[in-house]
Each structure stands twice: as structure tokens, then as C-alpha cells.
Amino acid sequence: MGLIQWLKGQFLCHLVICYGFFVSGLLINLLQICTLPLWPINKQLARRINCKLGYSLTSQSVALLEWWSGTEVTLYTDPENYRLYGKENAIVVLNHNFEIDFLCGWTFCDRFGVLGASKCLAKKELSYLPVIGWMWYFLEMVFIKRKWEEDKRNFVQSLQNLRDYPENFWVSHQSTSKFLLHCEGTRFTEEKHRVSMEVAEKKSLPKLKHHLLPRTKGFWVAVQNLRGTVAAVYCCTLNFRNNETPTLLGVLNGEKYHPDLYVRRIPLESIPEDEAECSAWLHKLYQEKDKFQEDYSQTGCFPGPKVTPPCRPWALINWLGWTCLLLYPLCLLLVQLVNSGSILSILATVAFCTAVSVGGRWMIGQTEVKRSSSYGVALNNK
């Protein structure tokens, strides 16, 4: 095991993983572009195809977490609610404290078969980036500029488009799909928390210890536009045992983490329709989430029974398939380069490998807490 762990930390392994991700991502983007003529003819078929293509890319990250690093997410939830996961549309509300919280969310989606159609909120700039950004564009992700007056119309229209989506989905505020919402609007940092609690004091709201104040307007708009389409809100609270501080670079190095995810299912009809009442309801929800996090820091566990959903093999099969498919021509190219002895060709190959490595490290860097945006500080200071 010592040798295997050592190999996982080597640059060559990281290079192969990044190469497979980027090249397969570009090929998937190309296939997605090829579906453009199909959209006006059969939009639902085009959507289903793009769901499968999206899964082929995002599941590689799930395989990296589950099979490469050996990280297993333990789920705390009501058994009666557990049987509904993956069988209904839902809005997922997840705390945004950790560098790999999105990976844990994707794993949750994959275990219940909804990863390919999952949705999230994303910065508009990401839609221009190859691989992930282009893939999300074809998956009809909700892109925002974080300027409400400009975002409102696009936000509402994007949500309305989901009403006839052919797959079940979970929507996250980042067939079945997931819509993921980080209601805090940005990743938790000590500076953002300090500013957020100053705002809470000015507005006479209860202070939170482990969360930022939630952005209530976007949540209310999402709930109102998805009534009749979404069955429930999944309130998810994520933490890691033994005060672990997980990083994406650690996952790439094969480090094993121990995440615990507490999921509560809240029927959508129980959420107030009035904006002010919905805002108060969301603030109360975050006070409850904060209490769960505080209890977890004291006891090391969340309330209720825990279960580990069965691991699906498709993410691993897909990852190995892409790796084998793309490594074969790369190995042939390297052999030809060595035999040719061409200095120019060798330099070009070295430059390509360097670009892949730099690109991979850049993407990893974007997940780091210290690299998170100043959005929360700037907005709360207004």
C-alpha cells in the first residue's frame, strides 16, 4: 500500500489524469457541438444525449474521489426519505465551506443516478471556458453575473426551461437532475463571515457561527418558478471527520477523506409562497443548519441513522475507458518521437505536457478557499 500511495503522488500519474480529463473533455465538447442541428428538430433527444455526454465528463471527477482517493461519503438521513432520492426533482441547498464540497455533491448525485442531469448556478465567465464551461452550456446550467437586475430575466427564463426537462433533476443553488444552490452566494471564509455577521447585526438577524447569511431573493425566485416541477428541497449539511481540511490537490495525491453529509427532505409545498415569509423561513433553516454544524463539532456525527449508498461502477468504467482510449495513441506518438530523434517534435511534446499540467493545476487552484472571490465581502459592504 505504501508503494501505491507513493505512485499516486507522482507527477507522471497526475499528468496522465489531467491529460485524460482535458482531451476527453474537448472530444465531448465537440460531440456536444455536433448535437446543435438536432435541437430544433428534437430538443428532448438533444437534451438526453447531452446528459449522457455530461455524465461522461463529470463522472471522471467522481471516480477520482471514490476510486483513486478512496473517499466514501457517509449519508445521514431519514430512511423514509432515502427511498425517494433519485426518483424526484429537487432543489439541493448545500453549505459552501470546503474545497471539494462540489465533488461530494456530485458523488451524492451519482449514487442516486442523477449526475448527468444535475444543474447548478455558475458564474457567467465559466460558460466561455472549454471543457467544463462548454459542457455546462449544453447542459443548460444557470449562468449569472451576480448583478441581480441583469440576472433576473435570464435566471427566471433558465428555470422555466427546466419545466419540460426530459430527465428528473436535482437543482443546486452552485431522468432525474439536481439543481444545486449555495444560498450563501460564495464560499465561506473568515473575512466574509465577519462582514456577513456585521450585516446580520444591522438587520437584527440571529448570528451564525458556521455559515454566511443566505441570499434569500434567488432562493425565493427558484422555488416560485419550480413549483409543480420540483417535489422537495434537500437541505444538505456537509462536514469532515477529525477536523479534516480536504483539498482537490489532496484527492489528486490519493489522500482519503471522511465526509459526512446530513440530508433533510423538505416538501416544496411547505415553503411559504410570500417572499418575506420565504426569506424568514430560509433564515430559520440556516439557523438549524448552524446548530447541526455546532453539534457535529462537539460530537463528530449528525443526528439520525446513517447509510452509505451503494457505489455504482459506471464512473470507474467510464474513467478507465477514456484513459485506455487516449493513452494508446499517446504511447504510439511517444515511441515515434523517440525513434525519430527530432528535437523540434520532442520540444513540442514537452510543451504540450507542460500546458496540460499547468491547466490542471490552474483548475485545482480555482477550488482553493484562499482563491475564492471577494463577492461576499464586496456585496455585504454595500
What does this entry look like structurally?
Strands 1, 2, 3, 4, 5, 6, 7, 8 and 9 form a 9-stranded mixed β-sheet that branches. The protein is built from 14 helices and 9 strands. Residues 174-180 and 372-382 have low confidence and may be disordered. Helices cover 53% and strands 12% of the residues. With 382 residues, it is of the alpha/beta class.
Low-confidence stretches: 174-180, 372-382
Helical proportion, percent range: 40-55%
Q: N- to C-terminal separation?
A: 53 Å
Q: Look at the structure and give the mean pLDDT.
A: 84
Question: Structural class, from secondary structure content?
Answer: alpha/beta
Radius of gyration: 21 Å
The total of helices stands at 14
Number of separate strands: 9
Molecular shape: globular
Q: What is the H/E order?
A: HHHEHEHEHEHEEHHEHEHEHHH
- Tell me what portion of residues adopts beta-strand conformation: 5-15%
Q: What is the makeup of the main sheet?
A: 9 strands, mixed
